[in-house]
Design goal:
six-stranded parallel beta sheet; two-stranded parallel sheet; 8 strands; about 45% helix; elongated
Length: about 250
Protein backbone atom coordinates (compact mmCIF):
# COMPACT_ATOMS: atom_id res chain seq x y z
CA UNK A 1 0.00 0.00 0.00
CA UNK A 2 1.41 3.34 -1.06
CA UNK A 3 2.07 5.77 1.81
CA UNK A 4 0.29 9.11 1.44
CA UNK A 5 2.63 12.11 1.65
CA UNK A 6 1.87 14.59 4.40
CA UNK A 7 0.22 17.77 3.17
CA UNK A 8 2.53 20.71 3.70
CA UNK A 9 1.20 24.01 4.97
CA UNK A 10 1.80 27.08 2.76
CA UNK A 11 4.19 29.58 4.33
CA UNK A 12 4.97 33.20 3.41
CA UNK A 13 7.01 34.49 6.35
CA UNK A 14 9.20 33.45 9.28
CA UNK A 15 9.75 35.82 12.21
CA UNK A 16 12.28 35.51 15.03
CA UNK A 17 12.70 36.71 18.57
CA UNK A 18 16.26 37.85 19.41
CA UNK A 19 17.14 37.13 23.04
CA UNK A 20 17.71 33.46 23.87
CA UNK A 21 16.62 32.65 20.33
CA UNK A 22 19.29 33.94 17.96
CA UNK A 23 21.87 33.92 20.77
CA UNK A 24 22.09 32.83 24.40
CA UNK A 25 21.34 36.02 26.30
CA UNK A 26 21.79 34.34 29.65
CA UNK A 27 25.26 32.99 28.87
CA UNK A 28 26.39 36.27 27.34
CA UNK A 29 25.08 38.33 30.29
CA UNK A 30 26.98 36.19 32.78
CA UNK A 31 30.25 36.66 30.87
CA UNK A 32 29.72 40.41 30.54
CA UNK A 33 28.91 40.88 34.22
CA UNK A 34 31.93 38.84 35.26
CA UNK A 35 34.18 40.96 33.03
CA UNK A 36 32.72 44.17 34.47
CA UNK A 37 33.34 43.13 38.08
CA UNK A 38 36.91 42.07 37.28
CA UNK A 39 37.59 45.41 35.60
CA UNK A 40 36.12 47.41 38.49
CA UNK A 41 38.31 45.56 40.99
CA UNK A 42 41.36 46.11 38.79
CA UNK A 43 40.48 49.83 38.74
CA UNK A 44 40.46 50.01 42.54
CA UNK A 45 37.16 48.65 43.84
CA UNK A 46 37.70 47.02 47.23
CA UNK A 47 35.32 44.10 47.28
CA UNK A 48 35.14 40.34 47.25
CA UNK A 49 34.57 39.23 43.65
CA UNK A 50 31.73 36.86 44.46
CA UNK A 51 30.00 39.46 46.66
CA UNK A 52 30.28 42.15 43.99
CA UNK A 53 28.91 39.79 41.32
CA UNK A 54 25.98 38.86 43.59
CA UNK A 55 25.18 42.52 44.15
CA UNK A 56 25.33 43.21 40.40
CA UNK A 57 22.98 40.30 39.68
CA UNK A 58 20.54 41.55 42.31
CA UNK A 59 20.66 45.12 41.01
CA UNK A 60 19.82 43.94 37.50
CA UNK A 61 16.97 41.79 38.82
CA UNK A 62 15.54 44.59 40.96
CA UNK A 63 16.03 47.52 38.60
CA UNK A 64 15.85 45.66 35.24
CA UNK A 65 18.53 45.21 32.60
CA UNK A 66 17.57 48.56 31.05
CA UNK A 67 18.45 50.59 34.15
CA UNK A 68 21.30 52.98 33.46
CA UNK A 69 23.11 52.94 36.80
CA UNK A 70 23.93 49.31 37.56
CA UNK A 71 27.56 49.82 38.55
CA UNK A 72 26.86 52.93 40.63
CA UNK A 73 24.19 51.03 42.49
CA UNK A 74 26.60 48.15 43.19
CA UNK A 75 29.05 50.60 44.76
CA UNK A 76 26.23 52.11 46.85
CA UNK A 77 25.47 48.64 48.19
CA UNK A 78 29.07 47.77 48.92
CA UNK A 79 29.48 50.97 50.90
CA UNK A 80 31.81 54.02 50.75
CA UNK A 81 34.77 52.01 52.00
CA UNK A 82 34.75 50.07 48.72
CA UNK A 83 35.98 53.14 46.82
CA UNK A 84 37.88 54.95 49.56
CA UNK A 85 40.90 56.73 48.14
CA UNK A 86 39.74 56.05 44.59
CA UNK A 87 37.81 58.06 42.00
CA UNK A 88 34.40 56.38 41.90
CA UNK A 89 33.73 57.52 38.32
CA UNK A 90 36.84 55.73 37.07
CA UNK A 91 35.74 52.47 38.69
CA UNK A 92 32.27 52.75 37.16
CA UNK A 93 33.78 53.59 33.75
CA UNK A 94 35.99 50.51 33.97
CA UNK A 95 32.91 48.35 34.47
CA UNK A 96 31.09 49.98 31.57
CA UNK A 97 34.05 49.59 29.19
CA UNK A 98 34.54 45.94 30.14
CA UNK A 99 30.85 45.16 29.71
CA UNK A 100 30.72 46.71 26.26
CA UNK A 101 34.06 45.16 25.33
CA UNK A 102 32.51 41.78 26.03
CA UNK A 103 29.81 42.60 23.49
CA UNK A 104 32.43 42.91 20.79
CA UNK A 105 34.08 39.62 21.71
CA UNK A 106 31.25 37.41 22.87
CA UNK A 107 27.98 38.55 21.27
CA UNK A 108 27.61 35.89 18.58
CA UNK A 109 24.76 33.88 17.14
CA UNK A 110 24.32 30.36 18.45
CA UNK A 111 25.49 27.37 16.43
CA UNK A 112 23.52 26.89 13.24
CA UNK A 113 21.77 30.27 13.29
CA UNK A 114 23.84 31.87 10.56
CA UNK A 115 23.63 28.82 8.30
CA UNK A 116 19.86 28.57 8.64
CA UNK A 117 19.32 32.30 8.06
CA UNK A 118 21.62 32.16 5.04
CA UNK A 119 19.57 29.29 3.64
CA UNK A 120 16.29 31.13 4.32
CA UNK A 121 17.65 34.13 2.43
CA UNK A 122 17.76 31.98 -0.72
CA UNK A 123 13.97 31.49 -0.51
CA UNK A 124 11.14 33.92 -1.18
CA UNK A 125 10.06 33.84 2.45
CA UNK A 126 9.82 37.10 4.36
CA UNK A 127 12.45 36.86 7.13
CA UNK A 128 11.59 39.12 10.03
CA UNK A 129 12.21 40.08 13.64
CA UNK A 130 9.66 40.85 16.35
CA UNK A 131 11.59 41.81 19.47
CA UNK A 132 10.66 43.44 22.78
CA UNK A 133 13.00 45.89 24.46
CA UNK A 134 14.63 49.28 24.03
CA UNK A 135 14.86 49.91 20.30
CA UNK A 136 18.51 50.93 20.04
CA UNK A 137 19.67 48.06 22.27
CA UNK A 138 17.81 45.46 20.23
CA UNK A 139 18.96 47.00 16.95
CA UNK A 140 22.56 46.97 18.22
CA UNK A 141 22.27 43.24 18.90
CA UNK A 142 21.24 42.56 15.30
CA UNK A 143 24.18 44.59 14.02
CA UNK A 144 26.69 42.90 16.34
CA UNK A 145 25.28 39.43 15.58
CA UNK A 146 25.93 40.02 11.88
CA UNK A 147 22.56 38.76 10.61
CA UNK A 148 21.08 41.84 8.95
CA UNK A 149 22.11 40.71 5.46
CA UNK A 150 19.80 37.69 5.78
CA UNK A 151 16.73 39.59 7.01
CA UNK A 152 13.99 41.44 5.12
CA UNK A 153 14.60 45.11 6.10
CA UNK A 154 10.91 46.05 6.13
CA UNK A 155 10.12 43.09 8.42
CA UNK A 156 12.21 44.16 11.44
CA UNK A 157 9.97 45.27 14.31
CA UNK A 158 10.91 46.50 17.79
CA UNK A 159 8.02 46.85 20.22
CA UNK A 160 8.89 50.41 21.28
CA UNK A 161 8.47 51.49 17.67
CA UNK A 162 5.24 49.59 17.10
CA UNK A 163 3.47 50.86 20.24
CA UNK A 164 2.47 47.42 21.52
CA UNK A 165 4.64 45.03 23.52
CA UNK A 166 4.60 41.30 24.10
CA UNK A 167 2.37 39.45 24.81
CA UNK A 168 -0.28 41.89 23.50
CA UNK A 169 -1.75 40.20 20.40
CA UNK A 170 -2.14 43.64 18.80
CA UNK A 171 1.63 43.62 18.29
CA UNK A 172 1.45 40.59 16.03
CA UNK A 173 -1.67 41.86 14.25
CA UNK A 174 0.02 45.18 13.50
CA UNK A 175 3.09 43.47 12.05
CA UNK A 176 0.97 41.41 9.67
CA UNK A 177 -1.16 44.42 8.79
CA UNK A 178 1.91 46.41 7.76
CA UNK A 179 3.28 43.57 5.64
CA UNK A 180 -0.10 42.45 4.28
CA UNK A 181 0.38 38.89 5.55
CA UNK A 182 -2.10 36.32 6.84
CA UNK A 183 -1.44 34.70 10.24
CA UNK A 184 -2.10 31.17 9.02
CA UNK A 185 0.76 31.59 6.52
CA UNK A 186 3.29 32.87 9.08
CA UNK A 187 5.57 31.22 11.62
CA UNK A 188 7.19 32.65 14.74
CA UNK A 189 10.34 31.29 16.40
CA UNK A 190 10.89 32.22 20.05
CA UNK A 191 11.87 30.94 23.48
CA UNK A 192 9.25 32.49 25.77
CA UNK A 193 6.09 30.35 26.02
CA UNK A 194 3.85 33.12 27.37
CA UNK A 195 5.17 36.06 25.31
CA UNK A 196 6.15 34.39 22.03
CA UNK A 197 4.23 31.16 21.66
CA UNK A 198 0.84 31.72 23.35
CA UNK A 199 -0.13 34.99 21.59
CA UNK A 200 0.95 33.72 18.17
CA UNK A 201 -0.89 30.42 18.63
CA UNK A 202 -4.06 32.32 19.55
CA UNK A 203 -3.71 34.53 16.50
CA UNK A 204 -3.49 31.52 14.18
CA UNK A 205 0.26 31.48 13.51
CA UNK A 206 2.42 28.38 13.41
CA UNK A 207 5.03 28.48 16.17
CA UNK A 208 8.44 27.03 16.96
CA UNK A 209 9.68 27.08 20.53
CA UNK A 210 13.45 26.90 20.86
CA UNK A 211 14.12 25.32 24.23
CA UNK A 212 17.71 25.35 25.41
CA UNK A 213 19.02 26.59 28.76
CA UNK A 214 17.71 30.15 28.70
CA UNK A 215 15.59 31.98 31.28
CA UNK A 216 12.32 30.49 30.03
CA UNK A 217 13.43 26.91 29.35
CA UNK A 218 11.48 25.44 32.29
CA UNK A 219 8.37 27.61 31.92
CA UNK A 220 5.07 26.32 30.59
CA UNK A 221 2.60 28.38 28.62
CA UNK A 222 -1.14 28.06 28.25
CA UNK A 223 -0.69 26.53 24.79
CA UNK A 224 1.82 24.22 23.13
CA UNK A 225 4.05 25.29 20.25
CA UNK A 226 3.43 23.72 16.85
CA UNK A 227 7.04 22.52 16.93
CA UNK A 228 9.77 22.42 19.57
CA UNK A 229 13.50 22.37 18.90
CA UNK A 230 16.68 22.40 20.99
CA UNK A 231 19.16 23.21 18.25
CA UNK A 232 18.66 25.91 15.65
CA UNK A 233 19.70 23.53 12.89
CA UNK A 234 16.51 21.58 13.56
CA UNK A 235 14.54 24.55 12.23
CA UNK A 236 15.56 23.86 8.65
CA UNK A 237 14.27 20.29 8.94
CA UNK A 238 11.00 21.48 10.49
CA UNK A 239 10.46 23.94 7.65
CA UNK A 240 11.36 21.52 4.86
CA UNK A 241 9.21 18.70 6.27
CA UNK A 242 6.08 20.67 7.17
CA UNK A 243 5.80 23.77 5.01
CA UNK A 244 5.47 24.68 1.36
CA UNK A 245 7.39 27.73 0.15
CA UNK A 246 9.36 28.78 -2.89
Amino acid sequence: MRKTAAVKKPLDAVFFDIDDTLFSTSLFADKARHAAVEAMIAAGLRADRAAAKRELDEVITEFSSNYGGHFDKVIDRLGPESTEGQNRAVIVAAGVVAYHGTKGRELKVDDGVRDVLKWLATTKLVRGIISAGITIKQAEKLVRLGVLEFLTPSAIFFTDQVGFSKPNPKLYRRVLQRLKLKPQRCLYVGDNPTHDIDPCNREGWSTVRIRRSGRHAAEQGATVATHEIKDFRELERVLRDNYEFA
